[in-house]
Amino acid sequence: MSTPTGDAYVVRAIRPDEWATVKQLRLDALRDPVAHIAFLETYEDAVGRPDSFYQERAARSAEESRGARQFIAEAADGTWAGTVTVLIEEAGTKDWAGYPVERRQGHAVGVFVRPEHRGNGLIKALFDAGVAWAWERGAERVRLLVHEDNTRAQGAYRKVGFVPSGVVLSFSKDQAEKELEFVLERQS
Fold it and tell me: What is the spatial distance between Cα 183 and Cα 171, in angstroms, rounded to a whole number?
């Protein structure tokens, strides 16, 4: 049996009525061995949230949304193999951590690929969709934050074109740990 490549999936925006599958994918992501450094939320917090939280999240980042879009990769058997969400951050505002946003940009969050679907180009297919959406909305760059110890993710982000910007932030869950900003600049 061969492993599918990134182009063997359908990559698309979620729909609001898919909130239960969005919830399940998030819970699965939070069970990943590196979830404690990859996500700000814990499994315990996520599983305790009411369904209305996931319904609202899906509605905010579904096909019709202007400020956020969640993309999923659907395998031939219907399984959701991975996800990325891109938020649009406006110049002159502050980001989620309170830092000033200097220019219109996309911010990739919630990146997850199921272990059995890793290493085949799927992450590139997800980012291609998310970055294209950000460019369509006038973003000048797309950024993401990655924990200094999450070398697997850093390697995947480099592979799809992101590079360290030199910005280093304290990890919100432990001020002694660091997160690195990676960016993909829009080509003129």
Answer: 18
